[in-house]
């Protein structure tokens, strides 16, 4: 096993040592907590309890989409960017919302996304925030972009797979990324993949411990900007 240590620094004064594990036989990243699958049949049950279930003020956030080759040729381009699955994870639990079955954004999700006191960590946050506004009208607040955090720490490449290997010492599989996220029934592999993606985003952020944060917000025009109120 080969290990390489590098020091990463940034303009915000954060400095950390990241272990680069070059062993190709890394342990696979897999969320080991409780996964709650939420669809049209049980969405109402979690309306008031979602935030309490997560029981944290810092969560990982991710979206899944239907690849074009699974989408109907009659489907409009606007609908092709509509999130099929939304994942919100703490270290112990991941809520996986099957949006293609629910048909609307549950108020519990809207509350979490717009709550300034709940920090949402996303890899590619601006894109996720714009899509949530575009399709569901939610003005997200207190998002932190993991990709930008890694760039500021000069931790490149900044892909999630690379970050997970460097920071967590785990191997992140992306085999399910281009699977059919609007299948009648998602496979266990898809569900585990979805939960793991949201969780590793949070875990990597917590491991990096940046000293300063650029919290993002969606303004009244639907654009993403740094939240001047934080």
Automatic annotation (TrEMBL):
GO CC annotations on file: cytoplasm; nucleus
Example GO biological process: nucleobase-containing compound metabolic process
Top-level taxon: Eukaryota
Record flagged with keyword Cytoplasm: no
Coiled-coil positions: none
A Pfam family this chain is assigned to: DNA_pol_A_exo1
Family annotation (PANTHER family): 3-5 EXONUCLEASE (PTHR13620), EXONUCLEASE 3'-5' DOMAIN-CONTAINING PROTEIN 2 (PTHR13620:SF104)
UniProt protein name: 3'-5' exonuclease domain containing protein
Species this chain originates from: Babesia bovis
């Amino acid at each position: 096993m080969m290990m390489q240590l590098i020091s990463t620094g940034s303009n915000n004064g954060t400095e950390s040592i990241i272990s680069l594990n070059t062993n190709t036989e890394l342990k696979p990243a897999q969320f080991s907590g409780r996964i709650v699958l939420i669809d049209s049949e049980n969405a109402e049950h979690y309306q008031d309890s979602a935030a309490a279930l997560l029981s944290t003020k810092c969560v990982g956030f991710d979206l899944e989409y239907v690849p074009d080759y699974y989408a109907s040729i009659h489907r409009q381009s606007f609908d092709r960017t509509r999130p099929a699955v939304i994942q919100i994870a703490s270290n112990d639990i991941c809520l996986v919302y099957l949006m293609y079955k629910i048909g609307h954004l549950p108020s519990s999700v809207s509350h979490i996304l717009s709550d300034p006191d709940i920090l949402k960590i996303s890899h590619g946050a601006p894109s996720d925030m714009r899509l949530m506004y575009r399709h569901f009208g939610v003005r997200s607040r207190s998002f932190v972009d993991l990709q930008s955090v890694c760039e500021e720490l000069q931790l490149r490449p900044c892909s999630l797979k690379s970050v997970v290997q460097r920071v967590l010492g785990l191997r992140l599989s992306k085999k399910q990324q281009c699977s059919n996220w609007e299948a009648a029934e998602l496979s266990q592999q898809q569900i585990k993949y979805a939960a793991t993606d949201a969780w590793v985003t949070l875990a990597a952020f917590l491991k990096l411990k940046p000293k300063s944060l650029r919290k993002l917000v969606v303004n009244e025009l639907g654009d993403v900007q740094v939240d001047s109120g934080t």
